[in-house]
Amino acid sequence: MALFPGSVARLLCRLTLLGGASAIGASCTLVRVGGTAIVVDGGVRYAGSNPLPDLALLAETPVDAVLLTHPHTDDSGGLPVILEACLGAPVLATPPTSDLVGILLQDALRMRNGPDREAELPLYSERQVERLLLIEEAAMNQPHSEGSAGA
Ligand SMILES: [Zn+2]
User: Fold this and answer.
1) What residues does each domain of the chain span?
2) What is the 7 CA–ligand 1 centroid distance (Å)?
3) Residue 148: which pLDDT band, with cuts at 50, 70 and 90?
4) What pTM value is reported for the model?
5) Residues with CB under 5 A from ligand 1 (ion)
6) What sign has the CA pseudo-torsion 62, 67, 73, 77?
7) Residue of 145, 136, 59, 63 lying closest to 105 (CA atoms)
């Protein structure tokens, strides 16, 4: 007996964990289905020498979209850098998630650049955060079809 009887198409879905697989932080997953590649989340980790997910695979994979599931820093704090590796990809998120990520990233810049800095070097620049927020805003203003998630 077939697992998917009838006309339901079977597609191979490949998930590659770029970060967050063995510890909390740097959550980032590359999802490939058919000819589509989507990066889900892009966080930072708080321990270890590299705060970002492993982005090497993104250099050879054209990414169609970046999907942000929620605004926790371990899931979104690396987005300005990750987006550089996903050139041209829209960022999809709900409006509340997008709003909170914008606040958190700008606050992180203030903390990292201020006199009482908590980290040695900022992971990203103000320009990278502004670019991310512009892409999110443009994606949210796109008309979407009935039945879509409204991301
Ligand atoms: Zn989370």
Assistant:
1) 13-140
2) 36
3) very low
4) 0.78
5) 72, 75
6) positive
7) 136
